[in-house]
Amino acid sequence: MDLSYNNLYGELSPEWGQCHSLTSLKISNNNLSGVLPAQLGEAIQLHQLDLSSNHLLGKIPRELGKLTSMFHLALSDNHLSGNIPWEVRNLVNLEHLSLASNNLSGSIPKQLGKLSKVFFLNLSKNEFGDSIPDEIGNIHSLQSLDLSQNMLNGKYHHSLQNYNA
Question: Keywords in UniProt for this one (predicted)?
Fold first, then answer.
């Protein structure tokens, strides 16, 4: 289902989680507000979720880690806050992860290194601190990595020079 580039407003309904045969949900570039409902984690056939460029806030629900068929997750350009939940490591089929331009903070989770199929990873324009986890160097499929405009510090990892990202 694609409802992108409209002028839809209001909160995202928890009832989307009851759509057990839904494989794609794109409602980007609208005016949705409120929090991401944890019930989205019940839409177990979801392969693609794009809710970027809205006004969503709150934390990324850890229940999204149940969506093990997910290959595209885009939540960029919202007002999401808190940490990336460690359950993201369960998204073993994920190829595209964009969480840019939010208010996410804490450390970049080392569990991202478990996502062996990711080729696009954008965590730019957030408030991530600490160092880049060594485990990012384990993602050999990575083609595009953007960690710019955060508050990262620490030692530069030579494993990052192996990427053409």
Answer: Cell membrane, Glycoprotein, Kinase, Leucine-rich repeat, Membrane, Receptor, Repeat, Transferase, Transmembrane, Transmembrane helix
